[in-house]
Design goal:
It contains 29 helices and six strands. By secondary structure, it is mostly helical. The protein has a six-stranded parallel beta sheet, with helices on both faces. Helix 12 crosses helix 13. About 5% of the residues have low confidence.
Length: 640
């Protein structure tokens, strides 16, 4: 595509998404089915708005799958990954081997093809769609359920299994294999190497990714964050994913697997939330483009010419997978709800089938007469996945079980803290340490990378990010939190955070730090009821110490401080209503100051008559009588 063609294609794809997805969501079908339907409508077999370049678009959009796996890795703590090891290796391994074996047996029994071809078909169709399943589970909030986590484990094993399957397929060739396959699709570093050096290089690359994630990436992001250029941080995040994708491709591994591994390594980094926020829009856009490209690639002409064959292939594939998956779930001890979700989520072909079938065709493992209907069947089964999951949700679950709730994993509870503290510098850290000492856990956000690093070394969970961004607050758990404490240094940034929180998370109780009266007025105007001036407490403590050093007793001083604070807070709210009217505001300040002095001394005089002497031997009346006499004398002179 060049020039105007590029912009035209962009216009078509974006228009289709903007129109189809809201309609699909409104009808309860979910965004994935909306994207697929948009692709079918604009594809070459209906409106014909996009043509053969759809395959090029799909190759570009597959990068969205890579980004999705990176974000999934960021959500998966290493401890959780280790906890899922049995389901990844056990359930995942059993699913792939059993499905491949059954499909191979069926192919050999009902077709004239040899067992080698049947095995190639079985290995290809054993895989499911990572992109569609993960997006749908995430969208419905089912990823953390037992069924969702088991489905994720199987998908992760399948992504790993693609690597040995690609290596194994040429061995099943009926004729000569095409040794220049790699050179056509882009050469790799290990294409002509023996097995042992190839394995060493692959392990070295994986080790390098792990080491870089642990020791190099966080310091690099810290240096980038110090520039305070948000777009540079976003560029660095994209560069990280593209670099890993290229590196994994060069050694013949799955880019999605490599980026997932990098995400797991960075899952405990202080930059995790910011990475999620920066990459999420790109991931969502590219995944949507991928789903549209899948819909547009369905060859309805071929399906129309062979409807019985395609129906039989799709029906057979889904039926075989449903039976195998429900048995595996039963043997694994899943509850009925979990088993149904697990089964209906994975009963389709996967996007890697397109790669494996093309690879099998080039290596003479299958002919075009077999590859074409299989590609059509896989594409149709992927398009049917959202409908299958909707069928399970609306018709099966209500009759045979209840809708499964997300598992309350320890990691999930830890991630959903009741309090978010924005700004963890000198002021916010004191609040955070005090709350933590009293058993209140909080999620901490700060924009200063040096401060984040220092506090992390102290054992506190602090994350880098700009809390005025809606997406970052959402990622930090604002939807489930009860309170937001705004403790940032900049009054303007504090007001931005407040406005964002009130717009998107109106249920949050907000406590805001301010520096001056003007800052307080802005916060009160914004609707924040709980405003705390940074220097008020420190100034009152200093004033109390000054009076103490002048000989006044501590008990009446503390009572005076409490009285002053109460009246000052009352005056703050009264003056906030007038600060836009400058003359009236100045006049009101003079009146309020005089009223404050009068009320203070009246309180002290009255309190001295009725209260005990408290901590010392001097009554409050005796203690403050010189101040009372001085004020009354000044008041008489002014009245004259």
């Amino acid at each position: 595509m060049h020039g105007g063609d590029f912009f035209y294609q962009a216009f078509v794809y974006l228009s289709a998404a903007v129109v189809a997805v809201p309609i699909a969501k409104k009808l309860g079908f979910g965004s994935v089915l909306g994207y697929l339907m948009a692709g079918i409508i604009i594809g070459p077999f209906l409106l014909g708005l996009v043509g053969e370049e759809g395959q090029d678009v799909m190759h570009f959009a597959e990068f969205g799958v890579v980004m999705m796996l990176f974000l999934v890795g960021l959500e998966v703590q290493p401890a959780l990954l280790w906890k899922l090891r049995s389901s990844i290796l056990g359930i995942g391994g059993v699913q792939v081997l059993t499905t491949a074996g059954i499909i191979t047996l069926v192919t050999v029994l009902v077709s004239p093809y040899p067992w080698q071809t049947g095995l190639a078909i079985g290995l290809t169709l054993a895989l499911s769609s990572t992109a569609i399943v993960m997006q749908t589970l995430s969208e419905k909030g089912l990823l953390k359920t037992e069924g969702g986590q088991n489905a994720f484990s199987v998908l992760l094993f399948q992504d790993i299994a693609v690597i040995p399957i690609l290596a194994f397929l040429p061995l099943l060739a009926a004729g000569e294999t095409k040794t220049d396959i790699v050179s056509k699709s882009g050469s790799t570093w290990v294409e002509n190497m023996a097995m042992i050096p190839k394995t060493v290089i692959i392990l070295a690359v994986i080790t390098a990714i792990i080491a870089a994630g642990r020791y190099l990436i966080s310091p690099a992001f810290r240096l980038i964050a110090q520039t305070r250029l948000r777009e540079l941080f976003t560029a660095a995040a994209l560069l990280l994913i593209i670099s890993i994708t290229l590196l994994m491709t060069k050694v013949g591994l799955s880019p999605a697997l490599g980026t997932f591994l990098a995400g797991v390594i960075l899952a405990q980094s202080e930059y995790r939330h910011e990475l999620e926020v920066d990459i999420e829009p790109f991931k969502g856009l590219l995944l949507g483009l991928f789903f549209i490209a899948v819909g547009a690639s369905i060859d309805f002409d071929f399906i129309g010419q062979n409807p019985g064959l395609i129906a039989a292939l799709v029906g057979g594939l889904i039926t075989i997978k449903l039976i195998i998956l429900v048995i595996i779930g039963r043997v694994a001890g899943m509850r009925l709800d979990s088993n149904l979700l697990f089964t209906f989520a994975l009963a389709q072909g996967g996007e890697f089938a397109f790669v494996l079938l093309s690879f099998a065709l080039q290596n003479n493992v299958m002919g075009a007469d077999l590859v074409d209907p299989l590609i059509a069947a896989v594409a149709v089964s992927m398009a049917l996945t959202p409908l299958l999951m909707l069928f399970n949700e609306k018709l099966i679950q209500p009759r045979f079980g209840t809708t499964e709730k997300p598992k309350q994993e320890d990691e999930s509870i830890a991630a959903k803290c009741p309090v978010i503290i924005a700004g963890f510098g000198r002021y916010g850290s004191t609040i955070g340490r005090f709350m933590q000492a009293n058993g209140i856990q909080a999620t901490y956000l700060d924009i200063d990378p040096n401060n984040v690093e220092l506090l992390r070394k102290m054992g506190l969970k602090v994350f880098y990010g700009d809390a005025s961004r809606h997406s970052l607050l959402a990622t930090a758990g604002a939807e489930d939190a009860r309170m937001l404490i705004v403790a940032v240094d900049s009054p303007d940034k504090g007001l931005e955070i407040v406005n964002t929180a009130q717009k998107h998370f109106p249920h949050l109780k907000i406590i805001a730090r301010t520096k001056s009266w003007n800052d307080s007025y802005m916060m009160l105007d914004a609707g924040v009821d709980h405003v705390h001036r940074e220097y008020l407490d420190g100034a009152l403590r200093m004033a109390a110490d000054a009076l103490s050093m002048m000989g006044y007793r501590k008990y009446p001083i503390q009572r005076a401080v409490k009285t002053f604070r109460k009246h000052d807070e009352h005056f703050l709210r009264e003056l906030a209503e007038l600060h836009h009217d400058h003359p009236a505001f100045i006049e009101s300040i003079k009146e309020k100051n005089e009223d404050l002095e009068r009320m203070m001394l009246d309180d002290l005089e009255n309190m001295g008559k009725d209260k005990d002497r408290g901590w010392d031997n001097t009554s409050l009346k005796e203690e403050f009588s010189p101040m009372v006499r001085q004020f009354k004398s000044r008041d008489k002179k002014q009245s004259k």
